Automatic annotation (TrEMBL):
InterPro entries noted in UniProt: Nuclease_put_TT1808, Restrct_endonuc-II-like, Uma2
GO molecular function, one term: endonuclease activity
Record's keyword annotation contains Nuclease: yes
Pfam families listed in its UniProt record: Uma2 (PF05685)
UniProt keywords, alphabetically: Endonuclease, Hydrolase, Nuclease
Entry protein name: Uma2 family endonuclease
Length: 192
């Protein structure tokens, strides 16, 4: 295991079986469970995944990421890695093999996606973190990770409204956001 886990929460997480349709992940020593996503979420994942060229990148869903020095095993909505760096098997993909992670915000994941995971992914040195936010109809592109632990952060941040292309330089592509839907009747938030 690559994550620091003094309380044994990772072992506990391995042993529990969440109900069908529930995702469980370890974020800074806290087990967080999320219900099945909204259709808007799933369609954004689909539209994003289809734009990533499989000959250069594998966009993986439900892939646990291990981060050295972190008591965390996040499960991003999409993990993007080069096919030639992937291990033959295993549940935990080391963060140093990951080029990009994508999270789609839901009304219950706003704080985790914008604050907690931002710091965790930066601590893992993941070059690109893309937050797709159907509440605010925007994408937040985070690059240039630096720091350790809770002080880790991304030094570059760009906010792009839905309908505008997102320059995913580390993947060598521009992400078309024109097909991304929004969540109706959800109160706006103040992030990032």
């Amino acid at each position: 295991m690559t994550a620091v886990d003094e309380r044994g929460m990772a072992k506990y997480l391995d042993e529990i079986e969440p109900p069908e349709g529930v995702k469980a992940e370890l974020l800074r020593g806290v087990i967080v469970m999320m219900a099945s996503p909204d259709l808007v979420h799933n369609l954004i994942v689909l539209h994003t995944q289809r734009q990533i060229p499989l000959e250069r990148w594998y966009p993986l869903q439900t892939q646990d990421v291990g981060i050295v020095g972190e008591e965390s095993m996040p499960v991003p909505d999409l993990v993007v890695a080069a096919p030639d760096v992937l291990p033959a098997a295993g549940r935990l993909l080391p963060s140093q093999l990951v080029t990009a992670v994508v999270e789609i915000v839901s009304k219950s994941s706003v704080h985790q996606d914008y604050v907690v995971k931002r710091s965790i992914y930066a601590a893992g040195g993941i070059p690109t973190y893309l937050v797709i936010d159907p509440i605010m109809a925007q994408c937040v592109l985070l690059t240039k990770p630096a720091g350790q632990g809770e002080d880790a952060d991304y030094h570059a941040q760009e906010i792009i409204k839905f309908g505008e292309p997102v320059p995913m330089d580390d993947l060598g592509l521009e992400l078309d956001t024109s097909e991304f839907g929004t969540l109706p009747d959800v109160r706006p938030h103040r992030y990032p």
